[in-house]
Amino acid sequence: MKTLLKYVLCQDRYIEILGTLPFFYIPDKTRYLHYDNLGSIDTITDGQGNIVERMAYTAFGERRKGDWRVSDPLLPIILALTNRGFTGHEHIDEMGLIHMNGRAYDPQIGRFLSADPYIQAPYNTQSYNRYSYVMNNPLKYTDPDGYRSLALIAATITKAIVVNVTNIFVQMAIAYAVTYSVTYIETGSAKAAQSAGLSAALFMGIGGLIPNSKNN
Question: Does 28 have pLDDT greater than 50?
Answer without folding.
Answer: yes
